[in-house]
Amino acid sequence: MRIISNLFNFCLSLLFFILNFAPYSYALGNVDWVLLKENNDGKEWLDKGSIKLLPNGELSVLTKFFKNSTNSNDDGTLSLYVMRINCEEKKFKDISINGIRQFNTKWQTSNNDELIDIVIENSCSEFING
Question: CB neighbours (10 Å) of residue 74?
Fold first, then answer.
């Protein structure tokens, strides 16, 4: 019984590991990072090769954000996001953060965050002009 339990836990862990890194496996071969904006908060990049139109009319994009250090002991943090964007309403939601799926995310506006605004603007214009 213990062997079956260990085997089940191993398979479950392996499945979680594979599914957890699925967005990165596609992006690794097609990365086209473009630095969109840098301000006091940090830097925002967009992977232009990741922009995909979904069947419901939304866009899916891969972005990375480097948050500037708030103190001298910190080097800052780099985070990867898979975002869904609704171009008509200028809203977004984070589907994945650093490879971890975000469940039950809600649509939100940028709240005048210029880095998020530039991601939405560039993603939507890239798709329209694409």
Answer: 10
For residues 45 and 34, the answer to whether their CB atoms sit within 8 Å is yes
Structure tokens at 67: 């948050």
Q: Shortest CA distance to 115 belongs to which of 76, 47, 63, 74?
A: 63
Q: Whole-model pTM?
A: 0.73
Long-range contacts of 92-95 (CB under 8 A, 24+ apart): 92/116, 92/119, 92/120, 95/60
**Tens digits of per-residue pLDDT, 71-99?**
877 888 999 999 999 999 999 999 999 99
Domains identified in the chain, total number: 1
Residue with tokens 């990165």: 24
Please tell me what DSSP assigns to residue 88.
T
> Pairing mode, if any, of strands 77-86 and 59-67?
antiparallel
Six-digit token string for 72:
């001298």
User: Domain of 13?
Assistant: 2-129
For tokens 């990049």, what's the residue?
45
